[in-house]
Amino acid sequence: MWGQCVRTWNYLFNEIADPRAADLLFMSNPILPIVIVALYLGFVLKWGPAYMKNKKPYELKKPIIAYNIVQIIVNFYIFLEGVKIWKTYNWMCEPFDASYSEKALWGIRLCHAYFLIKIVDLLDTVFFVFRKKQSQITVLHVWHHSIMVLGTWIGVKYLPSGHGSLFGVINTLVHCFLYTYYLLAILGPEVRKYLWWKKYLTIIQLVQFCVVIIHEFLIFLPSCDYPKWTSIFIIPNGIIFYSLFLDFFRTAYRKTNDDKKKQ
Fold first, then answer.
1. Were both Cys, which of 96, 108, 174, 178 would link to 160 (CB 3.0–4.6 Å)?
2. Among the options 144, 163, 175, 215, which is catalytic?
3. CA distances in angstroms from 196 to 78, 175, 200, listed in the order given
């Protein structure tokens, strides 16, 4: 029994994994990413709120400003480098590059950087907890942050290039806009009144998921030899994300429109 478990473990996380990513941080096996997500869920859903129950909210203005600036810079850098590497990208079907070329190896490192930034993204919710912004810790928010860590780990571990990598390039650009919004919002009411474009930020996110879902379906074209198993993860989660973001959009902006009518 134990021997079979060891063989299965070796098969899943060594034999069928991409050997080029094996030595990268957190990539040897899924234990650390799973532990990180488990601790994240425990903190934001139980331990954090319990700790803050009888405490005043922390302001954390300076750390959040610094955090958002770093996020904008890192996401924009990954986006620019991704555009350089994928400038010859075949939108209909980009094959998996299993070579050890300089381009392929740099692409893997960019995918890995994207995975690491998804771990850093978990701090979004940690800040909400310490600032007692419980209304912002929604099912959408927690699910999105948790699944992105695990999903990007799978991508880097098994297919860190090719057709599916388009999502990362698009998503880093979207996050540049997202963290720019967060940065401006934390600066205070003087700036916040100019953030009328929050609604359009959600629309951009919805468009992003539509593009990803449609793009993933292209791998089922007869001429495309990109691994089809990626659709098992990407398409259902794309649909879930789209549904949750659409529900958020309808709820948030229906309320806004109703409030305007009452005035």
1. 108
2. 144
3. 27, 18, 9
